[in-house]
Amino acid sequence: MCTEDADCPMGNPVVHGNGIKTGKCLMFNATHSTCEIYGWCPVENSTLPRKPLLAEAENFTLFIKNTVHFTKFNFSKCNTLQTSDPSYFKSCTYDPVFNPSCPVFRVRDMVEAAGQNFGDLALLGGSIRVLIEWNCDLDHPATQCQPQYSFSLQDMRYNFRTASYYWGSQRQLYRNLLKLYGIRFDLSVHGQAGKFSIVPTAVSCGTSIAFFGAATMVCDLVLLYLDAKADLYWKEKFEEARPPKGKPKATA
């Protein structure tokens, strides 16, 4: 609401509106006036779809190729199966039991592995985390170093807007604004590798022995000199040597 142009500072955004003020106060009807707004018409339609617009997307596939390199051991491994068959990746689909070496994932399988239904998630969008974990024991053959995949839901809604601009025949600027819903996949890779070596093992054992020796010394110092019952501990820890009865003491 406004009564004069001064109530409509030019360039100020409209709170809960869809544009900026032009600096003019205009009559809205016979009893009310309002600030003129410069913005796009019509305003965004907030109507939500009733079903996914592309239900067939559940059968889309994602090819995820990942390589890890453990520089300390000069070891590298890729999650793709080393094969000479060029058609293998076109026909295989990942399965944790029957086909764990295929890096081709079906969208519906990934959504279901995250505990969701594709139809519900695709309606308003969502975000799924794909975690690839490498836990390799390099004392075993390299073929046993295989990634483990897990899927978890991060967000139940995901959308973004994109616009295209163009000039009309009357030299007016137009735009097409699209609000897109979809499923976003965030990939995260964690890895660790280990290999037996006698040197670190010996160092660890020596450190443990030294630690227990130092701990014993510290405990003795505390009990012998700082504890309130230090006299009792002295008697229990040390024994006074006395000559046998009936034998005279040695004299010079």
List the strand order in the largest sheet. 8-7-11
Could you tell me the strand content as a percent range?
25-35%
Order of helices and strands: EEEEEHEHHEEEEEHH
Number of DSSP E strands? 11
Structural class of the helix and strand makeup? Answer: alpha+beta
Largest sheet: 3 strands, mixed
Query: Which shape, going by the Cα principal axes?
Result: flat
Tell me the Rg in angstroms: 38 Å
Q: Could you name the ranges where pLDDT drops below 50 across 5 or more consecutive residues? A: none
What oligomeric state is this?
Answer: single chain
How does this structure look, described?
The protein has 252 residues and is of the alpha+beta class. Helix content is 22%, strand content 31%. The protein has helices at residues 88-91, 107-113, 118-124, 198-226, 230-237; strands at residues 20-27, 33-38, 61-63, 67-70, 75-78, 104-106, 126-137, 147-155, 159-167, 173-181, 183-194. Helix 4 (198-226) packs across helix 5 (230-237). It is flat. The N and C termini lie far apart (120 Å). The mean pLDDT is 83.
What's the layout of helices and strands?
Elements lengths: L19 E8 L5 E6 L22 E3 L3 E4 L4 E4 L9 H4 L12 E3 H7 L4 H7 L1 E12 L9 E9 L3 E9 L5 E9 L1 E12 L3 H29 L3 H8 L15
Parallel strand pairs: 7-11
Antiparallel strand pairs: 1-2, 3-6, 4-5, 7-8, 9-10
Keywords:
about 250 residues; alpha+beta; two-stranded antiparallel sheet; 5 helices
